[in-house]
Amino acid sequence: MTVTTRGFTSIEELLGWGREREVYSAAAWSVGTAERELTGGAVGTRSWGVAPLTRTDLFDLASVTKPLVGIVIMALLERGVLTLSSTVGELLPSFQDTDKSDLTVRDLMLHTSGVPGQVPMYRSHPTREAMLEGLRILPLRRRPGEAVEYTSQGFILLGLMAESAAGVSLSALMDEYVSGPLGLESTRFRPGEEDRDRCVATEDCRWRGRVVVGEVHDENAVVLGGVTGHAGLFSSVDDMARLGRALVANLDRRVLLHPVTFATMIENRTAALGEARGLAWQGIDPDGSPVGDLLSPEAFGHTGFTGTSLFVDPRLGRYFVLLTNRVHPSRERTGIRHIRQVFHNLAATTLNPTP
C-alpha cells in the first residue's frame, strides 16, 4: 500500500503557500553556486493589493546588514586601518571614559562584548545625539567573553568605529568594499524617492503612524539616520544572488577579501559558549537552526528581523537567499521560522536528485 502525504514539490510552491497564509505579502529567493543560479524567483506583491513583486524590487535586509558591515571591517583590516584588537576607546574618543573603552572589534563582531542587545533606545533617546549618549552610558550586562548575547547595540558601535578609522561614512565604505566591486546596483542605505515604487512594504508602525515603505524598519536605525552597523541596507534578490555567488567563490579565491581573511571571518569562534558565531556571521547551531536540518556544520550566514536571510554552505558549494516582508503589516505574524527551515531543506535536496 502506498501512503501519500501532502508536501511541497518546489520552493515556489512553498513560498506561495506562505503568502496564502499571510505570513508575508512578498517573497523572493535564489539558490546557486559560484557559477550560476540554480533556482530563483519572486511571488506575491510588494504590499497587500498592489502590483506583483519583481526580482528588482527592494527589501529591507534588517540584520543581514551586519555581515556586510563585517566584510567592510575585514577589508579595513586587510588595509591596516584597524585590527581585531582595536578598541572602542582607541577609535571613538568619546567612549574612552566608559565601560566600553576596552572592548575590541573582535568582541563586538562575535557578540561577546557584554553590551546588552535588543534595547529599544529610540523610545527614550529620540535624536541621534541622545541615542549616542545613551549608548555611551548603557551599562555592560557582563564581562567580555563570558557569553554570546546578540547585540545590535554592539554593531552600532562597530559601524561608528569603521567610520572613525577610515574617515568616511559607512555608506561610502559599503560602496567601496562591497557594492562597487560586485556591481550591486540596488544595494544601498536609504533608498531615494526614485526607488520608492519598488520598495517592499514592512510594518504598519504605531510609532511612525504609517505603513513603512522605503525607510528602514528598525526604529533605532531610524533615529540614527538610517545608516548604521546593525541595520539599514536595502537590496534586491538579484543583487543578493550576485553576492551569494561571490561569497561561494571567495572560499577559494579573492573576490571581496583574501581567502585567508574570509576563512578567519567565517570560523566558528564561540563553540565553547554554546552558540555558533563567526566574525559577524551566524553559524549552524545543533538544535533549532533557522535554516533547517540539512545544511552542513560549516555553513554560515545571517537572518534579518524583517524576514530575510543569506546563507552559504561550503560543503555543498551553495548559497541560499530568501527575502520576505514577514513584518507586513505586523511583526506579530508567525510562521516564518517554519518556512525558512523548509526552504533550506528543499533547496539542499530537490536541487541534488539522487541518480
UniProtKB/TrEMBL annotation:
Keyword Hydrolase attached: yes
GO molecular function: hydrolase activity
Start and end residues of each Beta-lactamase-related domain: 40-339
Keywords: Hydrolase
InterPro entries hit by this protein: Beta-lactam-related, Beta-lactam/transpept-like, Diverse_Enzym_Activities
Domain of life: Bacteria
Protein name per Swiss-Prot or TrEMBL: Serine hydrolase
Native organism taxonomy: Bacteria, Bacillati, Actinomycetota, Actinomycetes, Jiangellales
